[in-house]
Amino acid sequence: MTGGRAVIDGRGVVADGRPIIEVARDAGIDIPHVCWHPGLTPDGGCRMCLVEVDGAARPVAACHTPLAPGMEVRTATPRIEALRRDILALELSAHPEGALRPDPGGRDVQRLAARYCLDRSPHGHPADTPAVDASHPYMRFDPAICVTCRRCLRACEEIQGTFAYAVAGRGAGTRLVFAATDRFADGDCVACGACVDVCPTGAITDRDRAQAPAPTEQVRSTCGYCGVGCQVQVGVADGRVVRVDGVPASTVSRGHLCQKGRYAHAHHRSPDRLTTPLLRDGAGLREVTWEEATAWVAGRLAHIRDRHGPDAVAVLASSRSTNEACYLLQKLARTVIGTNNVDCCARVCHSSTAAALTAATGTGAATACFADIELARAIVVAGANPTEAHPVVGARIVQAALAGTPLVVIDPRRTALARIATVHLQVRPGGNVALFAALARALLDAGRIDRDYLDARTEGLDALAAELARDTAPPAGIPPDRILRAADVIGAGPALFVTGLGLSELTQGVGSVLALANLAFLTGSVGRPGAGILALRGQNNVQGSVDMGCAPDVATGYQRVTDPAARAHLADVWGVPPPPAPGLTVTEITAAADRGDIRAVWAMGEDLAQSDPDQERVLRALDRLDLLVVQEMFMTETARRAHLVLPAAGALEQDGTFTNAERRIQLVRAAVPPPGGARPDWEVVYDVARAMGAGWRYREPADVMDEIARAAPALFGGVGHARLAADGLQWPCPAPDHPGTPRLHVDGVARGRGRLTPVTPEASPEHDVAGYPYTLVTGRVLEHYNVGTMTRRTPSVGLVAADVLEIHPDDAAREGLAAGDRARVESRWGRTEVPVRPSRRVPAGTLFLSFHFPETHTNRLVGPHVDPVSKCPDYKVTAVRLSRGGPPRE
């Protein structure tokens, strides 16, 4: 043998230091195994992978023995095969007869039983069969066939980072347990399904697949939940979705999914799906044909436009729909109706982030990509709870932290990431600017800034330093030593700053993100691998809906409607330029509707009545409209008020594209047809435009994307459906041979030089309101998605059946509230009643409430305050008071 080579079963291989089993697998040599699984840390417990190595005194485990140069390995000698058979027979003897039946097409253990002809155990079996645990709505555990191989435990720890499993007992009494509980449903499992995928026996299985037929078709698509954009393999049989799996080759998700992406798909076949257009007739809604609905809405829109002017009409695109549908709706508004009254839900979530990043860098999107998580020297998570809102990205951050990457978490709540953070800064809700100023001041005082980077790439350092020197007030409630410790982590070099709605949804949301951008510039982080600003987007296509021009001041590709050159270019593509004056934001649209200035609203997939703030005004405004058109999958609170309801296809039922938080445009493919007469959004908009006289010609969504590329070539000129098939493309992608752009500002900031911006901390109008001693923060929980339209129609309701108010135990005791009691929560704007859960995740004086269930009316509590620049509502700071509510609901 020569150095660098080894032999396995007579075959020459490269000895690259990996375990024998991995090298053999790559060479097409199968070594039997039970506890080993690709990608997981070797355990070495089952001993099924024993092999003989020349010169070794005894067999060695192939799973954790590195293949060294000169080794000669034999994997299937008679001695080894007999040893394996005895090991497996001994394992099978610990299980009830027939529990692990030989099956050449089954799981790993059943296949091995067939290989070694172990139809019956030679050693007998236990008399009692342990009961199956079916307490979890998505997963079941059969202890009778668990071989305690620890694959599930390692997958949970090494992929998800949840630590839901443990192994208890010794010898024959060894068993898998769910942390400190005896029931699957009561443990810490987050139902990502990673354990199911690696289980070698089927002891842990997916309940949704138990009675479903085997898929007859597999369709690759993009998950329709959050803005991570995980790739999914949708298994279809008999026209229905029977399973969803991750795609291992996906750059975004690497085969991993969260419980919503993997399991929460039953909504697509819910019996209360809308399947026929519904037209208001008196006090009720009656079914009409699509032809009648299209003609009616086209006529009504034209009538209102002609009588009251085009600016009496507004359209609201959906961040749950495709890029192609969003593009066509804004094009209809601008070219057929003649208004820039175009907006989407990004206004009420990420508009502050976009405005701030545009001011600081010239581009209002994430500068970094998900791959930077693993490359990061340090990670700062500010105002985001990714383990619940963006679980696959959250799991990657957890794994980075567990591997030793320093982690700073800035959040009022003690989130899962805060529990493992190097430093948790428990900022007062709305106190971000003061905290970021303190961190920047600490960096400057200690000289922990990247002077070369700042001189070469930024402007405004002197002004920022002067402002920080003038205002030295410490942030409320955070010990100075913790600020210094966080600054020490941040100031050691470039860092990855992960941000979310806790910075954006504030009256000082733009200021919060600008102050965070200051930290990113001071540490030389923007434009570098493993660093930058990663703004997590809430919905599956919230990035794409704005990219497409669903905003009142910018058209497709962020071309300003006030820019003569942009208007001339768009006129070349569209035949008509957009109107020259910016339109109204969604909060301004509802205010204008309340005044009677807006007469018609077309809401595509937006449930304004449940999701928008200051709900009493929203409901009043909707009721005053002459025309309300709603495209939806279900009869939402907004749809109940509509004059016309148009049944929409879901993410599993239409073709097109979504754009995720790292600017990656990915294909969406229809796995099943929409029910009844429900139709993809783009087709509906197309038909209405043509009925209003537009000469549009599109055969399929790919044609629409081709026009998007022409409309905004600087960002999308090289984007087409054919190029997206493999793993998508990240914009900017300006030419057909361009590979896409994983990171922005690598060669210099888009606006020329990065702008450091002094920001003076300002109190929220909801801070320190007399008579309202608590601060309410609203947000999501893992099990549900936004207003719950989809997840409430899945078994997820078996995990979380209601919105629950998190309250510190001391506050609960002060108010006389125990777990499960109903509390009346009142703000200056509205009231609601909800059950309470005492929790130390929130500090004293702060409350947390989700908004997934319509009966909660969470956003009745949220007031009319918005950021003055972005017009983003302040969902994260609402002054409330508490009292005991009525008896618990049955």
Can you give a write-up of this model?
The longest helix is centred in the middle third of the chain and has 19 residues. It is built from 29 helices and 37 strands. The protein is an alpha/beta fold. The model has no long low-confidence stretch (mean pLDDT 94). It has a seven-stranded mixed sheet with strand order 14-13-27-26-25-15-16, with helices on both faces.
Give a brief rundown of this model.
This protein has 890 residues and is of the alpha/beta class.
Structural class: alpha/beta
Output mean pLDDT: 94
The tally of beta strands, per DSSP, is 37
Report the helical percentage: 25-40%
Q: Nearest-angstrom radius of gyration?
A: 29 Å
The residue ranges in which pLDDT falls below 50 over 5 or more consecutive positions are none
Biggest β-sheet strands, sense, barrel = 7 strands, mixed
Question: What features would you highlight for this structure?
Answer:
29 helices, seven-stranded mixed β-sheet, six-stranded mixed β-barrel, 890 residues
